[in-house]
Amino acid sequence: MSGELSLNINIKEPRWDQGTFMGRAKHFFMVTDPRNVLLSAETLEEARVIVEDYRAGSAKPGLTEDELWRAKYVYDSAFHPDTGEKMVVVGRMSAQVPMNMSITGCMLTFYRTTPAVVFWQWVNQSFNAVVNYTNRSGDAPMTVNQLGVAYVSATTGAVVTALGLKSLATRLPPIASRFVPFAAVAAANCINIPFMRQRELKYGIPVTDENDNRLGESPNAAKQAIMQVVVSRIGMAVPAMAIPPVIMNALEKRAFMKRFPILNAPVQVGLVGLCLVFATPLCCALFPQKSSMSVSGLEAELQETIRKTSPNTTTVYFNKGL
Length: 322
Hints:
With 322 residues, the chain is mainly alpha-helical. It has helices spanning 21-31, 41-55, 65-78, 96-109, 114-134, 144-169, 174-177, 180-196, 198-203, 219-251, 255-259, 264-284, 300-309; strands spanning 205-208, 214-218, 290-294, 315-319.
């Protein structure tokens, strides 16, 4: 078939070594590239065909290795790794920077009144709920009822947390109140992500051996995956929600900002966006996408099953989600 391009390139794995932070960072800079959001449905479909055909053992004539890898990353940015379904646009990791810079910028700008806090925390947690569901691990579907309960629980918990922190901030210096949105987001992530992925905690996520042979489902693996995602999400928020408030606190004392207060929101959004361009991929890279744990850390019943069906397996692998 194709004498031009080797069929032995492993596009099931990222192009760069995922055993190193730099390798993971390069991978996630590609996956979270905001320009991927602008790709047309035709471009996404073309990438899907190239990837699936190559995995099936064929490549179109003239396809180069760079074009193959580009198609793989376009595919990864828009299609779920476990189900293969096309993800909703705002839930894709490539939408994180443009969506979060807008929402976070507004949260940091409009934080002084209770209605503003409630509204923007609700918007933020609704967006997070979409992202958390879209980037869940595993291939088992959630019912509409499960999804509804998870969404209401996650957003309500997050908004209540934000209001509680805002009431505490009234006794603190003005600069401290600027950090209320960050504290609320950090706390809310600890609520939102487990709620939106509660099915995984109850029934487990698929675990495989090193050759991708499915061995079963593990709630313990789900706990590790969700914990890693929570840490990464909080890490993403740190630069975007901690650095701009300090800069804005200084800028608002300047004469030109007092003369043109309308610049407050766009400047804040721009600063947040600059932070997120780097924080999003770098924090996604804190842990490998294909995470692992020892068989001894799994449930006793699953350990027994693995000992019988795959006695040489000592480590299992799973998609941690994003």
